[in-house]
Design goal:
heterodimer, A: four-stranded antiparallel beta sheet, 12 strands, 31% helix, B: ABC transporter involved in vitamin B12 uptake, BtuC, two-stranded antiparallel ribbon, binds adenosine-5'-triphosphate, binds magnesium ion, ATP-binding (chain A), iron transport (chain A), membrane (chain A)
């Protein structure tokens, strides 16, 4: 068994009276890519937010490297764990560089606004995400993929060894989806960062995830390596949809072909 | 790098980052402010030559018109600056916190709340306590109104735009209250309140001027101390929170700052409308990537707008002295309607 980065213990999350997650337990492996899947509205974003202490649990707690994050200082957590929320919105008129600089907030103080170290972190974040040339551009003048890379750069400037991302590929075309996922893959394999994200594309999830977690009925329905976990039965239970499972001829990872209607060619 | 300045002390205890273009633009705004100030000092019912103004300001030589300059124009110009800058910065803060470009202290009713408290004080308490306490009560009124609006905003179904509507309701309520107080109270004390309410910038005293000027500067410095929080907050709740900002504490702190600014401006002159709404729209176009400079530019433009309005009010209708608020509202109200129409889809 590998090392645990984040330990979610007995967590219950609700909005008002409606419970979304009910005494859920989950261990997220260190230095791996973990992907949450599940139907719309099953609580993936809610769980991700609670892990990043954006949402207070009714009961239970979240441990980051065996420390309870609710008992840590918020800025201290911000140096260890970053989250990219689903479709974040930048203020009007800011440049990419200005956006990425926000990632240094937990390190800054009133008079220490821009040390060499901050600049190095910023430049590293821009280089890795391939945004250096676009740094003076207005965020609103970027393509969807470029904008998403800018936000990821913000998380990188934060210099945390854990990054959570909520549907980082939504609204992106296939090229940009792969571009973002490749970037995250490199961050994981080359810089050994723990990545946790929500994805809706099961096939891509199988290809990039070391560990897959399916959420259903307010709990973890099942989890494990994609090649073990993705079976006809499991998909049917998670999504309520029949499908056939194949194998990607290049990667050897599972591929899911959903049943349903459509054209048939003989 | 070419388009920026990076300032670092040797041990890096101090380190700052600025984009040159935005620094230049801010300086341009401050220079314009200086010109408008000079305009207000020189041009009035009669002209005071610029060398006389300089002689007076730097105490170089005695001048002929020292009463008109020293007792009338100078306090008027200085307190006009304070009113404009306070309202503008308060507007910038309120728009930032509610994340709504339609908001400003007067639109959401805070100015009216401050006025109610001040009028209450002037009619019932000023005889026993002394008129100089008016600003304190204006500030208390502003804080109470902000607090009511903040309580409303905690309710999940209240969107940012609805807060504006609630504020408009609160403002009419406050105005009705003022009318009621004026009608019900003894005529001599209500007259004092009435004079203050329509108060143009005419005849502000040196004491008022100096105390409001100093309060503004102190407050501005304190706000700049936390401006980094203000910037981060504009990136959305989730992003700000994940980077370690305590949202609740931040909102209360900044609403408190803008209450103080509102109370400050109301204490000097009431009824200068729409500066808080209008100014941030101009300044955010000028400075986009540097929060300190944005605050300075906002204060500068707010001061310029009020000074110009007051100057026109003073010059154009001689011998009448029309309150400056007539002009700021004249420009501000149509602009507000324009914003409402432009943003109607999100209401
Ligand atoms: N702020 C909120 N207030 C009240 N209910 C909410 C809130 N956010 C989410 N919910 C509800 O909680 C449930 C879980 O939402 P969540 O966003 O976590 O789902 P999700 O798995 O991320 O869905 P999706 O795949 O569509 O992003 C949903 O039923 C949703 O309606
Ligand atoms: Mg979601």
């Amino acid at each position: 068994m590998c090392e645990i980065k984040i330990n979610v213990k007995d967590i219950t999350l609700s909005y008002g009276d409606s419970t979304v997650i009910d005494s859920l337990n989950l261990a997220i492996p260190k230095g791996k890519i973990t992907v949450f899947i599940g139907r719309n509205g099953c609580g993936k974003s809610t769980l991700l937010h609670a892990i990043a202490r954006l949402l207070k649990p009714q009961t239970g707690s979240v441990f980051l490297d065996d420390r309870n994050i609710l008992k840590m200082k918020s800025k201290e957590v911000a140096k260890k764990l970053a989250i990219l929320p689903q479709s974040p919105i930048a203020p009007e008129g800011v440049t990419v560089e200005q956006l990425v600089k926000q990632g240094r907030y937990p390190y800054q103080s009133t008079f220490k606004q821009w040390t060499m170290e901050y600049e190095t972190a910023l430049n590293h974040a821009l280089t890795v995400t391939n945004m250096t040339e676009l740094k003076d551009r207005n965020v609103y003048e970027l393509s969807g993929g470029q904008r998403q890379r800018a936000w990821i750069a913000l998380n990188l400037a934060q210099n945390t060894d854990t990054i959570l991302l909520d549907e980082p590929t939504t609204y992106l075309d296939l090229t940009h989806q792969i571009e973002i996922l490749d970037l995250l893959y490199d961050l994981n394999r080359e810089e050994n960062r723990t990545i946790v994200m929500v994805l809706h594309d099961i096939n891509l999830a199988c290809r990039y995830a070391d560990h897959l977690v399916a959420i259903k009925n307010q709990k973890v329905y099942c989890q494990g390596a994609p090649e073990k976990m993705i079976t006809r039965e499991n998909i049917e239970h998670i999504y309520g949809l029949k499908c056939r499972i194949g194998v990607d001829s290049q990667f050897g990872t599972p591929i899911c072909f959903p049943d349903g209607k459509g054209r048939k060619i003989n | 790098m070419a388009n920026r300045w990076i300032i670092r002390s040797e041990n890096e205890k101090l380190s700052f980052f600025m984009i040159k273009k935005e620094v230049y633009k801010t300086i341009a705004v401050l220079v314009s402010l200086l010109l408008v100030v000079l305009l207000g000092l020189i041009v009035g019912i009669d002209m005071i030559p610029i060398h006389d103004v300089i002689n007076y300001l730097f105490n170089l030589a005695p001048i002929e018109n020292d009463f008109a300059l020293g007792e009338l124009r100078l306090p008027r110009v200085l307190s006009g600056m304070v009113v404009g800058a306070s309202l503008a910065v308060a507007g910038l803060i309120v728009q930032g916190i509610i994340r709504n470009p339609l908001a400003s202290p007067d639109v959401i009713g805070v100015t009216s709340g401050a006025s109610v408290a001040a009028v209450l004080f002037l009619t019932y308490l000023s005889d026993s306590m002394g008129v100089q306490w008016t600003p304190v009560f204006a500030v208390i009124g502003a804080i109470i109104t902000f607090f009511i609006i903040y309580l409303f905003s905690l309710h999940p179904s209240i969107t940012a735009n609805r807060i504006v509507l609630i504020g408009i309701g609160l403002a009419s309520l406050a105005n009705a209250l003022i009318m009621y107080i004026l009608v019900m109270s003894a005529s001599f004390s209500s007259e004092r309140a009435y004079l203050w309410l329509i108060g143009s910038l005419y005849g502000v005293s040196w004491l008022e001027t100096i105390s409001s000027f100093v309060s503004f500067i102190v407050l501005f410095i304190i706000i700049m101390w936390s401006k980094r929080k203000f910037e981060l907050y504009s990136y959305g709740d989730a992003v700000a929170m994940q980077l370690g900002l305590n949202l609740k504490r931040f909102r209360i702190l900044f609403l408190f700052f803008s209450s103080l600014l509102c109370g400050l401006s109301v204490a000097v002159a009431v009824g200068i409308g729409f500066i808080g709404l209008l100014t941030p729209h101009i300044s955010r176009r000028i400075v986009r990537n540097h929060t300190s400079l944005l605050f300075i530019t906002t204060a500068g433009i707010g001061a310029i707008l009020v000074l110009l309005a007051d100057w026109i009010a003073r010059i154009a209708f001689q011998p009448l002295d029309i309150p400056a608020g007539v002009f700021t509202s004249g420009i501000g109200a149509p602009f507000f309607i324009y914003l409402l129409i432009k943003k109607r889809n999100s209401l």
